[in-house]
Amino acid sequence: MEIKMSEKMTYKVLKQEGRAKRAVMETVHGTIQTPVFMNVGTVAAIKGAVSTEDLEGLGTQVELSNTYHLHVRPGDEKIKAMGGLHRFMSWNKPILTDSGGFQVFSLAGLRKIKEEGVTCRCHIDGHKIFMGPEESMRIQSNLASTIAMAFDECAPAKAERSYVQPSVDRTTRWLERCKKEMARLNSLDDTINKQQLLFGINQGAIYSDIRVEHAKRITDLDLDGYAVGGLAVGETHEEMYHILEETVPYLPVDKPTYLMGVGTPVNLLEAIERGVDMFDCIMPTRNGRNGQLFTKYGTMNMRNQKWENDFSPLDTEGTSYVDSLYSKAYVRHLFKTNELLGLQIASIHNLAFYLWLVGEARKHIIAGDFSIWKSGMVTQLSNRL
């Protein structure tokens, strides 16, 4: 099934097993094979001293950066003057930029919400920043990312229904404004990427009826792709899976389905089974910098004494160069002595693991045995080594 979504992109579902889907997405900056994990470089850099060369070596397909943070530093106008985010960070594959909404709304006590947008205080020096749908679209256009995310409000997972419904209604109105502004920006002569894509974001906290109705409303806008936002912000894993089960069927199967900011390796597999095929999360690098390594047989805490005299390779079945080059004892030593090399090794290992995991998911969906493979992997991944 191939859908000509627009002159900007095609999205072809190659195989489905239940709701799990294996697809290929063609963009102006290259091909994306899904399910895909997007490595997070919030300020145009992956934490843990992971270079662009490292990302290429790992087989990274998509890099994700943040609109708010790049607007604050170094400034989106400067990045536009340099030729866009791809040239700025020396990356020639697809980039997705988050709208900045989550960061703006996370500044609780420092922001004020109106229909026009949000006024907040910069987290660095306290100066006032106004961001609304049009501002977010203009910043992302200046960055010239492949995929721009719509400006939305991420309500707390446990917020009262009386707060969530008006918030979702406003997010829908903001999405309509984002679509209009994106079309205008893509038509301008000085726009770097005139084929920038726009994804809408489903919200609704843990209220499945609000989620479903919102999914229907935003689907009618015929956008390039759709995300499920506002999860992994306080709800249980079971609540998250329930929301995905209820909501994803009302999003177009013939367009990308993105779960924002999630999650653990098990979360990814559970979401893939429920129809999601795009992911991002800081967990691989954040947990890696704290000494936690993910493997197909479970997690390792590299600070544990049990690795002190273990001179075997870091991960005999790992896919990155660090896995065979360094021993467990050496990496433990690096963490115990607070050497930056330890953070880099762990970050590279974890990113490679996440990319391997979704790559295996792609293979098993094609083979038709994803559900069986996933069940076994979930059991293994839950182990502590």
Description:
The protein has about 375 residues and is of the alpha/beta class. The protein folds into two domains: about 280 residues, Queuine tRNA-ribosyltransferase-like (TIM Barrel, Alpha-Beta Barrel), CATH 3.20.20; about 90 residues, no CATH class. Helices cover about 40% and strands about 20% of the residues. It is built from 15 helices and 17 strands. It has an eight-stranded parallel beta barrel with strand order 5-6-7-11-12-13-14-15, surrounded by four helices. It has a four-stranded antiparallel sheet with strand order 1-2-3-4. Strands 8-9-10 form a three-stranded antiparallel sheet. The model has no long low-confidence stretch (mean pLDDT about 95).
Write a concise synopsis of the structure shown:
This protein is α/β, with parallel strands linked by helices. It has helices at residues 52-58, 67-72, 76-81, 85-89, 101-106, 133-143, 161-186, 208-219, 237-247, 265-273, 283-289, 321-325, 328-336, 340-367, 370-381; strands at 2-6, 9-17, 20-27, 30-34, 36-40, 63-66, 95-98, 111-113, 118-121, 128-131, 147-149, 197-202, 225-228, 257-259, 278-280, 292-295, 298-301. It contains 15 helices and 17 strands.
Short descriptors:
four-stranded antiparallel sheet, 2 domains, TIM Barrel, globular, 385 residues, 17 strands, 42% helix
What is the mean pLDDT? 95
What order do the strands of the largest sheet run in, or round the barrel if closed? 5-6-7-11-12-13-14-15
Helix fraction bin: 40-55%
The CATH superfamily of the largest domain turns out to be Queuine tRNA-ribosyltransferase-like
Ranges where pLDDT stays below 50 over 5 or more residues in a row are: none
CATH topology of the largest domain: TIM Barrel
Radius of gyration: 21 Å
SS class: alpha/beta
What characteristic shape results from the CA principal axes?
Answer: globular
Q: Give the domain tally.
A: 2
Largest sheet, strands/sense/barrel: 8 strands, parallel, barrel
Tell me the number of strands. Answer: 17
CATH class of the largest domain: Alpha Beta
End-to-end separation in angstroms reads 42 Å
Number of helices: 15
CATH architecture of the largest domain: Alpha-Beta Barrel
